[in-house]
Amino acid sequence: MGNTYIALAGALKVLDADFIVPPYNTKKTLNLGSKHSPEVICLPYKLVLGNYIEAIEKGAEGILMIDSPGTCRLGQYSQGSRTAIKDIGYDVEFINLDLYKGRVFEFYKGLKKATGKGNPIELIRAVNIALIKIDMLDVLNDSYSYYRARETRAGAAKKAHKQALKLLDNAITVSECKNALQRGMEILGKVPIDSFKDVLHIDLTGEIFVVIDQFSNMDIEDELGKMGVEVHRKIKLSNWTNTFIKPTLKKFEDSHEGQMKKLARDFIKRDIGGDALESIGDTISAGNNLSDGVIHLLPFTCMPEIISQNILHNVTKQKNIPVLSLILDEFTGRAGFITRLEAFIDLAARRKASRCRQYSQQKRVCR
Ligand code: SF4
User: Fold this and answer.
1) Mutate-to-test residue for ligand 1 from 72, 279, 309, highest number of ligand atoms within 8 A of CB
2) Which residues contact 254 (CB under 8 A, 6 or more apart)?
3) Which atom of ligand 1 is nearest to the CA of 275?
4) CA of 314 to the centre of ligand 1 (A)
5) pLDDT 10s digit of each residue in the chain, 367 long?
6) Per DSSP, what are the bridge partners of residue 55?
7) What CATH class does 199-367 carry?
8) Ligand 1 mean position to 74 CA, how many Å?
9) Nearest Cα residue to atom 1 of ligand 1
10) Does pTM surpass 0.85?
């Protein structure tokens, strides 16, 4: 799932484990996954399965997988991929992190089994490094988004972000991580930009896998950056880990998830699984904060997001916020995808220009 591997690989490096990072998702991953999946299962399942197969082909003898509670098909990922891998004929060990049974303890138990390391202090240190890196990946991504939208040399921000990720990937202690983040931010800070550029602010929300994974979302953040858009990714892995994994004194209601769920309550009363409530809450919040628009990403056949997509029509009307819902699957064509993005950005830019004209008549500042 995008650059998430940096965090999990960090934990395994702390434990000095012998591990294989599967390659980034590609067309090959998707083909492999689709070939061994039920036809109408959601896109993330196919990519996760394809990714496991690629790891096994590179020599992995065991798979560390998450079995998560939820009202959607996520609850079937672990069992489904296990069956598919056995049916293909691979003989590998499955190490399940069963989040139905408890989160922190299951991570601890899973890492212990995968690495054979039993020292609780080392295991806690490993989990801590993974959590720190998850936070830092999101900090770097936000900063990357700022510089990418304003860069004066095409591709400079992308190159800087890559260097920053590499530094973070190599860090295995808390102080190394802090140094890597500081150094990474400095590298990004050196990207030549036009800081007076009038950029559009677009919020990105939807199902977490396709929001985070660049292959499934066709590098949407980079594409928008090239169009001069500062993307505000609202669905972040750190939101989830900070709410559900990290021991915290903060109340659930104060977390991003808690706040978005509260906002969404005017439109939907119960949790329907996945990230549907957050998608609705993020869109309401974008309307309240005068964002220039929202892009909502959903995998084809994703039940929770199909429901939120339909509710977002009402949010658009009530909050006067433009929303583009994009459905992603293995048949989504790049050219049509970019055309839809360009049309939406054109609409959002004209809307912003008209709002700013009104504001200037009222002598108000237009963001
Ligand atoms: S949220 Fe949607 S895409 Fe994600 S696992 Fe559930 S059904 Fe599949």
Assistant:
1) 72
2) none
3) 1
4) 22
5) 889 999 999 999 999 988 888 889 999 999 999 999 998 899 999 999 999 999 999 999 998 887 776 678 888 888 899 999 999 999 999 888 777 676 667 777 788 888 888 788 888 899 899 999 999 999 999 999 999 999 999 999 999 999 999 999 999 999 999 999 999 999 999 999 999 999 999 999 999 999 999 999 999 999 999 999 999 999 999 988 888 777 666 777 778 888 898 999 999 988 888 899 999 999 999 999 889 999 999 999 999 999 999 999 999 999 999 999 999 988 788 899 999 999 999 999 999 998 888 887 777 777 6
6) none
7) alpha beta
8) 6
9) 274
10) yes
**Structure-token pair, residue 259:** 């706040």
Pocket test for ligand 1, best of 272, 303, 307, 328 (most atoms within 8 A of CB): 303
Residues 47, 35: Cα–Cα separation, whole Å: 11
The pocket around ligand 1, CB under 6 angstroms, is made up of 42, 44, 72-74, 207, 209, 273-274, 299, 302-305
Read off the tokens for 153: 């040399």
Backbone angles phi, psi at 173, to 5 degrees: -125, 165
Residue of the nearest CA to atom 7 in ligand 1?
302
Question: Domain boundaries in the chain?
Answer: 18-116, 199-367
Instruction: Select from 76, 271, 279, 302 the residue to mutate for testing ligand 1; criterion: most ligand atoms less than 8 Å from CB.
Output: 302
- The DSSP H or E segment spanning 62 is strand 62-67
Q: In this structure, which residue's CA is closest to atom 3 in ligand 1?
A: 302
Please report, for residues 2, 160, 185, 323, 351, the alpha-carbon distance to residue 354 in angstroms, rounded to integers and kept in the order given: 36, 35, 35, 18, 5
